[in-house]
Amino acid sequence: MSASRIGTALLALALTSAGAMAQAVPPQRPGSVAPSDKMENPAAPEAPTPRTPAATLDRLFQRLHDAKTPDEAQGVANLIQRRWARSGSDTADLLMTRAQEALKAKQTDLAIELLDRVISLQPDWAEAWNQRANALYIAGDPIRSLFDIGETLKREPRHYGAMMGLGLILRQQGDDKAAMVAFRRALDVYPEFETVKKAVESLKFEVDGRDT
User: Fold this and answer.
1) 116 vs 105: CA distance, rounded Å
2) Which of 42, 152, 171, 210 has the most CB atoms lying inside 10 A of its own CB?
3) 142 with 3: CB under 8 angstroms?
4) Distance CA 94, CA 201 (A)
5) pLDDT for residue 148 is more than 80
6) C-alpha pair distances (Å), 163 with each of 116, 174, 196, 212
7) From CA 111, how far away is CA 170, in angstroms rounded?
8) For the segment 40-73, what is each residue's pLDDT rounded down to a tens digit?
């Protein structure tokens, strides 16, 4: 299967996953108010806001979406990335740090080997798959990189970095229309993502102009 076809399949998966997340709360008609126990029993105290890691991440994504300036959005994105960087395993975190250092030193094969070990320890850690996708892309293996992007998006459909990587590979494969969809999906999550905004601008004439 070509990289373009794999990328298009991954894009469909990501969009389906994102749609399922968006439907987690039933839609309300315009102007309606969601029902609550408080409405039926005004004396009942309000339920405390959940403070689980997942709930915190959800709030950060909302702040990222609502940010008014690139600087504000970048600050929130940094907080999200710090949470993505936590695996829950000291060993996996240490191996991840070493893999990132190897990449900076252009020791790509070593980085991939370390990330293989990270994934074997923490297979549900989305960022481990994303980092290996990046390392494989640097190593000149876009097919395997696409597979790892798919694994990232299965675990975190809002991963705007993985979506940007998908768009870059699709564009290199000549599938500008699918690349544009990937970039715009990243902007749905992170509207002030400057790198992706520039990519969309550079593709507008080739994609949107071609369709008009």
Assistant:
1) 18
2) 152
3) yes
4) 39
5) yes
6) 21, 17, 10, 26
7) 24
8) 455 555 555 557 888 999 999 999 999 999 999 9
Question: Rounded to whole angstroms, how far apart are CA atoms 55 and 39?
Answer: 24
**pLDDT tens-digit profile of 6-40?**
665 666 655 555 554 444 333 333 343 443 444 44
Count, residues in the chain: 212
Q: What is the pLDDT of residue 38?
A: 40
pTM, 2 dp: 0.78
Please report the sign of the dihedral spanned by the C-alpha atoms of residue 95, residue 100, residue 105, residue 108.
positive
| Tokens matching residue 111 | 């980085």
Closest CA to 80 of 100, 109, 58: 58
Instruction: For residue 180, give the amino acid letter.
Output: M
Pick from 66, 135, 47, 37: which is nearest to 95 by CA? 135
HSE value, Cβ hemisphere, 13 Å, CA-based, for 163 = 32
Two structure tokens written together for 166: 């998908």
For residue 179, the surrounding DSSP H or E stretch is helix 176-189
pLDDT at 182 over 50: yes
Contact criterion met (CB below 8 Å) for 3 and 169: yes
Looking up tokens 């997340």 gives: 21
Work out the angle at residue 7's Cα, subtended by the Cα atoms of residues 4 and 10, and round it to the nearest 5 degrees: 155
